[in-house]
Amino acid sequence: MSETARLIGMLKASAAQRIPYAQPLDLNLLEDPAFISIKTGHTTYKGVTQAPNTFSEALHSIADGQPLPPPPNAPFGKEFLPRLDFVITTLNNHTVRTISKTKMAGRLPALSTSDLPSASPSEASATASPARGSAMLNSIFKSVRVPEFKYRWQFWAEKGQQQPPPKTSSTTAGAEEYANRPKPLGEQIISVKDFYQHFNNIPVESLKLRDSIHLFHLGVKPLWEDPRNTRGGAWYFRIGKEQASQFWHEICLLAVGDVLQGAVETKRASFNDDICGVSYSVRWNAVQIAIWTRDADNEAGKEKLLQTILEKLSPELEPKKDSYWYKAHKEHKGFAAPE
């Protein structure tokens, strides 16, 4: 039964001449055998514990989808239609708005349609769903120019070894093997798109003991003896393995986003400081993450860099005071001074 028919049935079941919003409905005039009087004086009809006593309650029952009493068997009087028209007019002008603000507050409106023509082939093609997954990303990157980083970067992979390289400046087999250990991974990185295409495919959690992953400026090799690194050093952070991946992720973003670079930049004419790269190295019971700088003598830059790292990292990643230190490359036992 439609809502209109249910409402008319309720109106037919009442004997009131003009029904204000809260005027009682005289349902006692009904002598339908389906009604059963109970001790409380209310009426029970087909599972409804209480029939509506007022026009307001009847409309609330309609809104809640409850069954309403059927019309009486007796014929209607000559004044029925004028009373019905009055109530419907009142409903349109006032009652529906009142119910919407009170009983139905918080409900979402519903729109139902029927007998609508189907979409034409041209309309269907114009409203087709866009591509998903990689197809959608490729479409976006083709139509939108991705901003490029200030510097170009490259990932490197290094398989660890137990013994340090020979401490000699001559070109020996051992020194060559050490210098050739870092291998470039993928292509150069010039945007966030390139970064995540590489980063998301490097499972650092699967690295073995003493293996390393490096992210360095393009053209700089992750070796102490690289010409751009020989006068530099690094901040080292010893991080628990459960937090290492997130720590590494945030350090990489601070690097490619030039946040770290801004902390060490100088305006000296002879030798400026730079962030050369960052490293992730697996140790016995922790992970060592390093931020390489070009100038180990830039004391102000080193302190500002440390402060920037501690401020920019997520609070849960804040390292303990005894878990980080700075060390110049030339202070390592395996450092081989270039000729």
Automatic annotation (TrEMBL):
<dbReference type="InterPro" id="IPR023398">
    <property type="entry name" value="TIF_eIF4e-like"/>
</dbReference>
<comment type="similarity">
    <text>Belongs to the eukaryotic initiation factor 4E family.</text>
</comment>
<dbReference type="GO" id="GO:0000340">
    <property type="term" value="F:RNA 7-methylguanosine cap binding"/>
</dbReference>
<keyword id="KW-0694">RNA-binding</keyword>
<keyword id="KW-0648">Protein biosynthesis</keyword>
<dbReference type="GO" id="GO:0003743">
    <property type="term" value="F:translation initiation factor activity"/>
</dbReference>
<keyword id="KW-0396">Initiation factor</keyword>
<dbReference type="GO" id="GO:0016281">
    <property type="term" value="C:eukaryotic translation initiation factor 4F complex"/>
</dbReference>
<dbReference type="Pfam" id="PF01652">
    <property type="entry name" value="IF4E"/>
</dbReference>
<feature type="region of interest" description="Disordered">
    <location>
        <begin position="111"/>
        <end position="131"/>
    </location>
</feature>
<feature type="compositionally biased region" description="Low complexity">
    <location>
        <begin position="117"/>
        <end position="131"/>
    </location>
</feature>
<keyword id="KW-0810">Translation regulation</keyword>
<dbReference type="InterPro" id="IPR001040">
    <property type="entry name" value="TIF_eIF_4E"/>
</dbReference>
<dbReference type="GO" id="GO:0006417">
    <property type="term" value="P:regulation of translation"/>
</dbReference>
<protein>
    <recommendedName>
        <fullName>Translation initiation factor eIF4e</fullName>
    </recommendedName>
</protein>
